[in-house]
Amino acid sequence: MSTEAPELRMRRRLLRVLGTLRPIKAGYQMRPMTVGGVLGLMVAGLLALLVTAPLASLVPWLPFVAVPAVVVAVPLLLLIANIGAGAWYAGGAGFPMLSVTDGEVRGRLRGVWADELADADPDDPAWWDLRLPARALSGVRVEHDSPGGPLLVLDLPPAAAEALTANADTQKLAEHWRSSVDSPAAWQIGLFEGRFRRARRLREFLKALAAAGGPVP
Q: What's the chain look like in SS3?
């Protein structure tokens, strides 16, 4: 793969740390009972905090304020860690998820989970869920007001779009994007890149697509 080709990969350091601390395997889903228990502890701790905080000026503050605060903070931190780690692996765990190389657009919708890291190989043709010449795209759009934006949307030929929605591994996300932006191929630049680098990354992709004969927004 050309080192000059623009690539989209997860570069969020905090998410990398959370992913390292909380490895998530393919197919993992938080059980509703677990989520309910965590939220229940948070609510109970918050109520206890609200009730006991006014007593801090009358009695020693530690057992009345610090303990409920911990009861709130620990479940909240666990929930945040789980969500952040999930975002890290769903976003490819630092491996390329979109590239414009040698006139070809290569994209991946599938995540890279903790039990798949050892076999991850972007140079393997099977790595990519989408491969087609940039000139075959029927359109390129940028959605700035979407969550995780800017959102780069590629309008695909019917056969390529159908392949993404028909594949069991990409179907769920492809159908989500199709219902949201009328295309099964979209990538959240703002999720992968920090605030000060996302605009530059987007410009790199648009420039590479245009140079490869692809459409421009």
A: CCCCCCEECCCCHHHHHHHHHCCCCCCCCCCHHHHHHHHHHHHHHHHHHHHHHHHHHCCCCHHHHHHHHHHHHHHHHHHHHHHHHHHHHHCCCCCCCEEEECCEEEECCCCCCHHHHHHCCCCCHHHCCEEEEHHHCCEEEEECCCCCCCEEEEECCHHHHHHHHHCCCCHHHHHHHHHHHCCCEEEEHHHHCCCCCHHHHHHHHHHHHHHCCCCCC
On whether the pTM is more than 0.85, the answer is: no
User: What's the pLDDT tens digit per position in 5-30?
Assistant: 789 999 999 999 999 999 999 877 66
pLDDT tens for residues 63-75? Answer: 566 666 666 677 7
